[in-house]
Amino acid sequence: MDVARATAILRRTPTTLRALLEGLTEERTGSGGDEEDWGPFDVVGHLIFGEETDWIPRARIILEHGDSRPFVPFDRFAQFEKFKGRSMDELLALLEEARRSNVETLRAMRLTPEQLELRGMHPELGPVTLGRLLATWVVHDLNHIGQIAEGMAKPYDAAVGPWKAYLPILDR
Amino acid sequence: MDVARATAILRRTPTTLRALLEGLTEERTGSGGDEEDWGPFDVVGHLIFGEETDWIPRARIILEHGDSRPFVPFDRFAQFEKFKGRSMDELLALLEEARRSNVETLRAMRLTPEQLELRGMHPELGPVTLGRLLATWVVHDLNHIGQIAEGMAKPYDAAVGPWKAYLPILDR
Fold first, then answer.
1. Which residues, other chains included, contact B143 with Cβ-Cβ below 8 Å and sequence gap of 6+?
2. In this structure, are residues B141 and B10 in contact, taking their beta carbons and an 8 Å threshold?
3. Tell me, what's the pLDDT at B9?
4. Suppose B32 and one of A34, A52, B37, B144 were both cysteines; which one would form an S-S bond, judging by CB atoms 3.0 to 4.6 Å apart?
5. Verdict on whether the full-model pTM lies above 0.90
6. Residue A83: is its pLDDT beyond 90?
7. How high does pLDDT run on average in chain A?
8. Nearest Cβ partner of A5 from B9, B25, B131?
9. Interface with chain B: mutation pick from A130, A144, A169, A172, highest number of B CBs within 10 Å
């Protein structure tokens, strides 16, 4: 787990999402409307909420309390209430600022290889380490970039006709 | 099928891929090394080859010959030879230029709703229409953006530890 390399991916995500989403119609980037069906708007809200309550706050719990204090459980559905009525462009700006600030905090921690081995306690998964938390932050971004691409593809499901057989993104 | 909306997505893809990939280490963005295992480098090469031989050339076949002339079969593996020895930054620049030029060509076609219903003949899938071809171009981009995110996540597969259970991108 190389923190500098992880940071290089983390700081790009808001730019990637702006390139993908900014200024497109609501039809293609809006909310999926419920907890089982996230649209791009819900995913970006979820990423902002993660910046506020997940990655850096959990890193701090590990650094300050080790595995003696389990992480606060993460609310996977908070974005549905929290960002109601906001626009995609507002969300992209919020994510940009939250991520910029968190990447700065991460760099300022100047984590050593020994600190990356420090243990924390996940409320469902059990023992984890700080290094695994940071690797998960990166993969979580990539996972949701993929999910946003899925949400953008969905309105074209019928329009592609027989080509659907070659497009696994439409089957997820 | 709204051509202007499709174009809005198509012209963004090179910018999205630059935000995702530019300047990262070869370990995370390189070739998967063989035809069964595409890395981000192979995917970007495949997208460039599509600009050269798939979308606009097939649109032209439909406009000029309808379904009387089947499309030339697309070579899904051409990128492995064609871009050997090139860098990711070179490929991103090639894609940018090829896409810019093709989006310009598409706009200059000023396709009417009637033209979008024109039929073409796919060598494997059979009868298709110009509108379905253009919708597929868009979803194909999104499909491969998802695949690139998968390729970038893969090196972190072991590093995330038990969190893997929450990250479907690592299971595709």
1. A149, A153, A167, A168, A169
2. yes
3. 96
4. B37
5. yes
6. yes
7. 96
8. B25
9. A169
